[in-house]
Predict the 3D structure of the following.
Amino acid sequence: MTPLLSTSDVNIFYGEKQAVRGVNLEVQRGSVNALIGPSGCGKTTFLRAINRMHDLTPGARVTGQILLDGEDVYGPDVDPVTMRRRVGMVFQKPNPFPTMSVFDNVVSGLKLAGVRDSRRLMDVAERSLRGAALWEEVKDRLRMPATGLSGGQQQRLCIARALAVEPEILLMDEPTSALDPASTARIEDLMTDLKKVTTIIIVTHNMHQAARVSDTTSFFLNGDLVEHGVTDQLFTSPRDGRTEAYVTGRFG
Amino acid sequence: MMRAAAVTSARPAARLSPVRRVKNLLMGALILLATLLVVAPLILIFVYLLREGLGALNLDFFTRTPAPEGEAGGGLLNAIAGSLEMLAMASVIGVLVGVAGGIFLAEYPRHPLMPTVRMLSDVLAGIPAIVMGLVAYSLIVLRFGFSGLAGALALGFLMIPIVVRTTEEVLKLVPLSVREAGLSLGLPQWVVILNIVLPAAAGGIVTGVMLALARVAGEAAPLLFTAFGNSSVNLDPTRPMSALPLEIYRGATSAYDENQRLAKAGALLLITLIFLTSLLARRASRVKR
């Protein structure tokens, strides 16, 4: 089976400084992939290259090739707006749109792109909120401001918002680092369910989380992809000494 | 940490040594004095206008036009109507251009024209009001004659840099992650700015517009040779129009007590309106935060 995402020799620079070096990675459809490594190792930088978020950062530059379903994400004819629609993203801190209701937040990706059919919007909202395991909690307050939800609910709302545009791949940048353990557990459970509808790449600081939720894990260190493999193997019998040192807690 | 804070803040004044207590009182008195010095002019102006002008703030003041020079009675309906209409027109110019400029400066920092626009906006902020009147004079009055529209244009130009500055600043307060969330949904940047970022900053922008209005509402200089003034009520923007600052100027320089009293009542109304606008602006910004 051809991988959904494959990168070859991806280098990312901030001005003169190189943050990511020659990353080759393949991600299969319907899997959860964890990117782990100490702070500043380039895992978030790499993640943000996949949906062209670096286009907005002054001085940031991406070289090499990233193929999403065979199409070059940085191809000369590719509109970054169209590409981002295929790649969803959930951020470190919950960031619901502050002036919008719960409902408007979920359907914002469709509504602001011109979808007016209220029946369809309602269907999408319910399906996305169910997908994010939030429907039962918010179904009676869809018209309330999204900022009134708890932190964990806000983050699941952001997941629902990303799911609503049916992305082929969902990027999660430390999605539980601002949440309490109960909310974290809910989102980890959710990831397993989400594999049925999309593919997930998650950046996490927490090795236990990577071990719990992911099928494959990539270990980054100082901008290099040190090791990539099936999660169980990478944690129990890593090939590289540096990976072993990190997963056994000798540094990081 | 907790203990240290409790010890310093909860220490009763009676436990201070006599020297420190005296110093404390002295410094407190100095601060009070400084505060009074700062607000004294405002209070004095307000008291003066209340004493001199309150008597003329009657029903006639709001419903009639000025009486002929030297005669008793009359009101400033022409000026009130003119001021309101010109300020409304000025707001349209100030808000449209000002908000657009603020969006450009805050959201497109890498655009090659950005430094130029920033500099132009700063220069505009420093241009004296009377020069802005001259600009409107040469643009409109020389061709079409004195008109309320020319006055509104001058006031609108004065509002632009204030609105630009506040819009830029409140837009920068909206977290970057909100913009990124919008873009990651596959929305074009302009949709994200107009539908997500701008509403989040709306309260602050309203505050900026109101402060700009309060700032230009009292301007007489740019209206002297644009709106010119009108002794009867005129709502047609293509003809000369009166305004509160213009009537205050004319009344205050008049030799007759009656006209002077009307001018002072006009001044009282004007600063009351400005005061209320500033209060409302503060409220608008507080509700949003």
